[in-house]
Amino acid sequence: MVVTSSTSTTKLLLTDMVLGVDHVPSNYIRPPLIVLILRMFKHHHISSHSCHRPKGSPWSSPPPHIIKQIAQACQHDGFFHITNHGVPKTMINNILRLAREFFQLPESERFKNYSDDPSKTVKLFTSFNVRTEKVANWRDFLRLHCSLWRTMFMNGLPIPHLLGEDVAEYCSSIRALVLSLLEAISESLGLEKNYINGVLGKHGQHMAMNYYYPPCREPELTYCLPGHTGSNSITVLLQDDVPGLQFFRNGKWMAVNPIPNSFIVNIGDQMQVISNDRFKSALHRATVNCDRDRISIPTFYCPSPDAVIGPAPELVNDDHPAVYRNFNYEEY
Hints:
Blueprint: H1 14-17, H2 32-40, E1 44-46, E2 50-52, H3 64-76, E3 79-83, H4 89-103, H5 107-110, E4 122-126, E5 140-145, H6 146-154, H7 165-188, H8 195-200, E6 204-212, E7 225-228, E8 234-239, E9 245-249, E10 252-256, E11 263-267, H9 269-274, E12 284-286, E13 294-302, E14 308-309, E15 327-328
Parallel strand pairs: 1-10, 2-3
Antiparallel strand pairs: 3-11, 4-5, 5-6, 6-13, 7-12, 8-11, 8-13, 9-10, 9-12, 14-15
Helix pairs in contact: 3-7, 6-7
């Protein structure tokens, strides 16, 4: 795709493309059979598992009942809410505010960060991969590599307007939280608490700021993200107060209502492999809202490309043979 200037009549971002348009653009409409299924497939509301850490108790050493709650959530659903996580409320509110302000910048300012090159470490683009997909997803998003962000900020390299040290500090806070969560998940499997951290090697951390805008008048024709599991090890999701996230449970799509100042943690494919299928990689999707725009900020935690992923030996025995072979993460 040739990237045109922001003065061109061709709009590359959904936010600008649908201004003044009262219908869903044809390249965002799902095939008729999928649309029919979406209309028939009603979702249900659920209360997810919630791991509520007592105030003052560090996630690096959660009490046994929290470990048990994590195990139950990972076995049954592959996702759970966490509260009292140690990330300040002011930081959460600030990062949500900055994300919204960024996406509300003038088109010419936002466009400075646009790229459809999947290999770029910091880029603003639309849908998922416009170079290969046949039907686009109803979202614009900014993607960045957390490990490079602070370096770029400290060295004065180009980064999106408005976003600087605040994003770097948020990434650091989420990294600390994830490292503690991985220890707790290891213990919930009956493993040494450093086992999963060791397997993942030099971890990769990526973040996306998703902007599901504008409200869609025909939400059954499209969706923000289709059903998928995470190819990574673990995702920590921050979202605003607008519903849209759904998980698949017992043959039904279940809507997960936002809880203020909490994070949703969902288990990815690599964790399912390490657990030898004891834990579930959560099938989830993001639906379109017909009334309000929505912000979500997932942080994806990935193994090192050369990390060897396979079932933990302690979880393999005659009653539970290995479900997966060992592989390098870069193969996945």
